[in-house]
Amino acid sequence: xxxxxxxxxxxxxxxxxxxxxxxxxxxxxxxxxxxxxxxxxxxxxxxxxxxxxxxxxxxxxxxxxxxxxxxxxxxxxxxxxxxxxxxxxxxxxxxxxxxxxxxxxxxxxxxxxxxxxxxxxxxxxxxxxxxxxxxxxxxxxxxxxxxxxxxxxxxxxxxxxxxxxxxxxxxxxxxxxxxxxxxxxxxxxxxxxxxxxxxxxxxxxxxxxxxxxxxxxxxxxxxxxxxxxxxxxxxxxxxxxxxxxxxxxxxxxxxxxxxxxxxxxxxxxxxxxxxxxxxxxxxxxxxxxxxxxxxxxxxxxxxxxxxxxxxxxxxxxxxxxxxxxxxxxxxxxxxxxxxxxxxxxxxxxxxxxxxxxxxxxxxxxxxxxxxxxxxxxxxxxxxxxxxxxxxxxxxxxxxx
Length: 400
Description:
Mean pLDDT: 76
Strand content: 15-25%
Number of strands: 18
Radius of gyration: 39 Å
Number of helices: 6
Distance between the termini: 106 Å
């Protein structure tokens, strides 16, 4: 973060003596820019302090290190209006690139058209084109609006690095926003300029917006009226359902909330992010690997335990145990005090003559024979005689 002083107010953007070459290295891009771009001036002067972007008529988005100043700031758009307050991200390292974001409240609503949408979720990818608009000062010291087409180079959990062959953000561009242009003509704020090299020629580091979007909306809600977007306040009369409705803190993480990330009762990693949520989610987390199934990392397991439970087996999602009661119904506590799948037991085959194929049928026939009714007394002699006659007619070899 020691680079910020050079980036903002230093004269370290050195280079060739030719002003035209120096201007190209510092700013590049083209003059002009979108209407949502705003300049933050030092109070009582025309000196550009930082850049910002409009989220609503009364709210701006900028860098935390731009707002952390003991001086009055003025927002210059179509007119000029004083800044009432600037709220820095509450993280202790809010001035570092990862959380270098602040929300600015204006004294009066801006009359300028145009506002940015806030990115939600993972919205930036390497090689993605973006537009940067800022009021960085040129070699003449004038902070005019310029825009620069650039490309996302790397993406981390909280930052982006962005490069362009046409130039780079420099002094006065801190707080400018890298936006993605949408097919419908709107723009989405992806990241905020945080810091770069003193010569303003290398990749610039930006603070990602999507990772702090919920905090931004909550902060705006303290002076903005309730809206149909995610601002932690439910509005029922919306053309499309307000994502805040059903998201109040009620101790239940259910499906009433359209976006689980807005429900304080739900875990923060219920979405598809490569991490199995260890907390409550409104539905099954697609990132979770079931117990007993092969895993490659402990973050795939709700128990945060990916281990080998058999001597020659592969790592599976499991949990520690002392007895079988500590494991799921179809699992048992193994020798390594880890729950393992209980092996299927093969039913025992009874020993004795009953195990010889066909003997059951013969026994059934024998019982059936014994249970035949006795013939009437008048037919007894005839039946006996007939039986003897049939028995006597059987060939001798049949007796074997």
